[in-house]
Design goal:
Elements: H1 7-11, H2 18-46, E1 53-59, E2 62-67, H3 73-79, E3 85-88, E4 93-95, E5 98-100, E6 109-113, E7 136-139, E8 146-148, E9 153-158, E10 161-164, E11 171-178, E12 190-195, E13 198-200, E14 207-214, E15 218-221, E16 224-228, E17 236-240, E18 247-250, E19 253-256, E20 261-263, E21 276-281, E22 284-286, E23 301-303, E24 306-312, E25 315-317, E26 325-328, E27 341-347, E28 350-352, E29 358-361, E30 373-378, E31 381-385, E32 392-397, E33 400-405, E34 408-411, E35 414-418, E36 424-429, E37 432-434, E38 440-442, E39 462-465, E40 468-470, E41 490-492, E42 500-502, E43 507-510, H4 530-535
Parallel strand pairs: 2-3, 3-6, 4-7, 5-8, 6-9, 7-10, 8-11, 9-12, 10-13, 11-14, 12-15, 13-16, 14-17, 15-18, 16-19, 17-20, 18-21, 19-22, 20-23, 21-24, 22-25, 23-26, 24-27, 25-28, 26-29, 27-30, 28-31, 29-32, 30-33, 31-34, 32-35, 33-36, 35-38, 36-39, 37-40, 40-41
Antiparallel strand pairs: 1-2, 42-43
Length: 548
């Protein structure tokens, strides 16, 4: 509509008297206020304030809605706009399922506790002791506590507890972001954040997983995700298989049975989809010993279909021994031949009390898949990896461009165990490891002898140098351990002769007087660079303090 700026003069012959002009101005202002008030009342009548809320008041970047315990959270979410904040009563209870609808805009709708002072500071992890300062969203029956509508976006939860109602039956996904049956990439929800949240199952065999990440961009930050385990149940703290990402899992306590974190494990519903751009930093992966024999237990961290993954600065310290990192390509149900594992970096982590170190299956041995490639395992400390001959640091089959560099490892069993298909372009450099009984084992038979290198059938292109190998089991009494390794590797009788500061007290740094200082192929110390390890924040991962 075009506004006629000469509207008043055309209708009224305005007197020149200043007094009459002032009276006319007052009449115009009163008329405008009356019209505006009528419009606002009409809008309120069509969208009444949800029961249990206080009136909105202006807040920075949006409006604030306060919802008392037991109030209708779904109604509040429906009527709020992006940029608003819904404040839930600390200690209050709200019944799910809450569906996050699609809204217009690109600022976050925040749903938070009323007692921010009662939880951890921004950037610092919460724990169950903060639960009294949190509102609780409960999952009813067999449904999720929170789920998303198609294309929902820009939602942020801060300081909220999620669990199931006392009378709830089995729940698959306590927080369900996205779905596993989408037909179009346009359906994915995105920009979803859970910060300083307590996500937990009250008992075994109650909830399959804490958070399902089948979405676009999503973040789980500074949270405590625990209790997801059960007998005969494929449980996870966090899992995603039908979402493109990116995903950020940073500074959380994570606890689950079958896999603590998993990407892949079911076929995506959209052609060519691979969960991608995954960042996993400063988390504490854990399983309690009370689950032994009572819950299905598998690897700590597992990828079956993923691309561009960084796993850096995490502590994996479980009371139940299982493989630390499982990287096995799986076209799980046979409908996703594009499944792959590519461009993965595992760095600056501390692993304690695992059964084995890293298991790499480069290609699905049951279904058509792509080959895993560009996997790097560097600057990690592996301590107390099971002492049996069945253990290993690295197990590998059929991968390409794998780099294992500058790790310090206290493991039982083989340094490397290879089987199935040869690993192409394999690099094992600058590590400190134990030889044990067999050193490197190769289970691939060839048609001709390998010559000077014993393992060419498993590693047709290998770089093997700058490593320091401890003959801790005195294998050299029966054969020449030196013959297993080409020049520019070093054999030492035991870790006692390595020159560690005090490895029995968990100080794995090399002393200044160690004969192996600066002997790595790159001129640095072999094994872990402890300054880089500490800079990753891994030593903060147990307590969840912020990285300075």
């Amino acid at each position: 509509m075009t506004v006629n700026t000469n509207f008043v003069p055309q209708l009224i012959n305005v007197p020149s008297s200043p007094k009459l002009k002032f009276i006319l101005l007052i009449v115009v202002v009163i008329t405008a206020i009356t019209v505006l008030g009528s419009w606002m009342w009409s809008r309120h009548s069509q969208n009444p304030t949800p029961q249990g809320t206080r009136p909105r008041r202006a807040g920075p970047g949006g409006q604030e809605i306060r919802l008392k315990s037991g109030g209708n959270l779904q109604s509040a979410v429906n009527q709020a706009e992006l940029g608003d904040t819904i404040v839930l009563e600390a200690g209050g209870t709200y019944m799910g399922p809450i569906t996050l609808p699609k809204k217009d805009g690109d600022t976050y709708l925040t749903i938070r506790t009323s007692n921010l002072a009662g939880i951890s500071k921004e950037g610092e992890r919460i724990n169950p002791s903060h639960a009294g300062a949190m509102p609780k969203i409960l999952s009813p029956a067999n449904d999720s506590a929170v789920r998303t509508a198609d294309q929902a976006h820009h939602y942020k939860f801060i300081g909220v507890e999620f669990t199931i109602a006392p009378n709830a039956s089995y729940v698959y996904n306590l927080i369900n972001l996205g779905e596993d049956n989408y037909k179009s990439a346009a359906q994915f929800p995105h920009h979803l954040v859970f910060d300083r949240c307590y996500v937990h199952s009250p008992a075994l065999n109650k909830i399959r997983r804490g958070i399902a990440l089948n979405s676009g961009e999503a973040s789980v930050l500074n949270s405590y995700v625990s209790g997801f385990a059960g007998a005969g149940d494929e449980t996870q703290a966090i899992a995603g298989w039908n979402g493109p990402g990116p995903f950020r899992i940073i500074n959380n306590y994570l606890e689950a049975g079958a896999e603590i974190v998993l990407f892949g494990g079911a076929d995506p519903s959209i052609q060519g989809l691979v969960p991608s751009d995954i960042e996993i930093r400063r988390n504490h992966f854990f399983r309690p010993t009370i689950w032994q024999g009572k819950a299905t237990v598998k690897g700590n961290f597992e990828l079956k279909n993923a691309r561009r993954v960084i796993v850096d600065g995490n502590l994996l310290d479980s009371e139940i021994r299982m493989t630390a990192f499982v990287l096995t390509v799986r076209n799980q149900n046979g409908n996703a031949p594009w499944s792959t594992i590519e461009d993965v970096t595992i760095s600056n982590n501390i692993v304690k009390h695992a059964s084995t170190g890293v298991n790499i299956l480069g290609r699905d041995n049951e279904q058509t898949s792509q080959q895993a490639k560009r996997i790097t395992v560097s600057n990690n400390l592996f301590v107390d990896i099971a002492s049996t001959d069945m253990a290993y640091f690295i197990q590998v089959s059929g991968s390409e461009l794998v780099t294992i560099d500058h790790n310090t490892v206290q493991q039982g069993g083989s340094i490397i165990s290879a089987y199935g298909e040869p690993a192409k372009t394999f690099s094992f450099t600058n590590n400190i490891v134990q030889f044990n009984s067999y050193g490197i084992t190769c289970f691939i038979q060839g048609n001709s002898p390998c010559g000077s290198f014993k393992y060419c059938n498993c590693f047709p292109q290998i770089t093997l140098r700058g490593n320091v190998i401890a003959d801790n089991a005195n294998a050299s009494s029966g054969f020449s351990v030196t013959d297993f390794f080409p020049p520019r590797n070093f054999i030492v009788p035991s870790y006692q002769r390595m020159g560690f500061v005090d490895y029995l007290k968990d100080d794995w740094r090399l002393q200044p007087t160690s004969p192996y200082r600066k002997r790595a192929a790159d001129g640095r110390d072999p094994g872990v660079d402890f300054e880089a390890l500490d800079s990753s924040g891994v030593n903060l991962a147990a307590g969840g303090k912020p990285l300075q």
